[in-house]
Amino acid sequence: MHHAPATARSWLFAPGDSEKKMTKAMEGTADIVLIDLEDAVAPESKAAARPMVHDFIKANPEQRHRLWVRINPFDGPYTLADLAAIMPAHPGGIMLPKVYGRQDVEKLDHCLSALEVANGIEEGSTPVIVLITETAEAMFHTGDYKGAPRVVALTWGAEDLADSIGAQSNKDESGAYTFTYELARSMTVLGAATAGVTAIETISADFRDLEALRQRATRVRRDGFKGMMAIHPAQVDVINEAFTPSEQEISEAQEIVDIFAANPGVGAIGFKGAMLDRPYLSRAQQLLRQVGKL
């Protein structure tokens, strides 16, 4: 089954052991709610969280497409128990964290296929977003996800990567990511482009500084990211706005598509005092596709 790349802008984490926080996240404006069984849930609480997550998704069938689950990674003992508990509720999608490479995605695909069939869900229908930079090893495989089953988006993380490297910090004195972590961001957008899927920016931990969030979201959107993860409901509207093309951008993209359509076979066209070549057309088409106008 072929999945289209993800179009969601905001991906809001909610701890899987808190019905209150899951409900609040679902009632907000996040495009995707990432119910978390990994970092947000302590090891001793995981067994209790799984049936809570199952029941929450089951109780909200009309919201199911928005309710995704971040399971635990394959390098620990929890993954299969997570999947066996939540798949009967038919979650909207799965986030796979802390991969070492494409083989983890393929393993997840096999697990999901078996559980889909066992639960009367169409085989192959559950989409996946992958956290591709949380281990040093995975950084060497960021371009390996082309044609990977179920994958609709790639995203990155800096905390586990620092841990994997044994670094004291992933930030410099000014609070900006140091080179290795900016590299992780670059490899994510390149890997997503290679795979033909959506690049999603990592979280901004300081959820009170919404202006810094807006600036960062705007900057990474220019780099090719189409959305961003959030850890607090207050961040969602800022992210949604930052990753929504403006009316001006949409109308300019439409003009560019129209001018190329009116001049078939032309390589470059003069437009508003500049020469436009084919990459401009491609970018305009991508933008219109994103807003459902192409």
UniProtKB/TrEMBL annotation:
<dbReference type="InterPro" id="IPR011206">
    <property type="entry name" value="Citrate_lyase_beta/mcl1/mcl2"/>
</dbReference>
<protein>
    <submittedName>
        <fullName>CoA ester lyase</fullName>
    </submittedName>
</protein>
<dbReference type="InterPro" id="IPR015813">
    <property type="entry name" value="Pyrv/PenolPyrv_kinase-like_dom"/>
</dbReference>
<feature type="domain" description="HpcH/HpaI aldolase/citrate lyase">
    <location>
        <begin position="9"/>
        <end position="233"/>
    </location>
</feature>
<keyword id="KW-0479">Metal-binding</keyword>
<dbReference type="InterPro" id="IPR040442">
    <property type="entry name" value="Pyrv_kinase-like_dom_sf"/>
</dbReference>
<dbReference type="Pfam" id="PF03328">
    <property type="entry name" value="HpcH_HpaI"/>
</dbReference>
<dbReference type="InterPro" id="IPR005000">
    <property type="entry name" value="Aldolase/citrate-lyase_domain"/>
</dbReference>
<dbReference type="GO" id="GO:0016829">
    <property type="term" value="F:lyase activity"/>
</dbReference>
<keyword id="KW-0456">Lyase</keyword>
<comment type="similarity">
    <text>Belongs to the HpcH/HpaI aldolase family.</text>
</comment>
<keyword id="KW-0460">Magnesium</keyword>
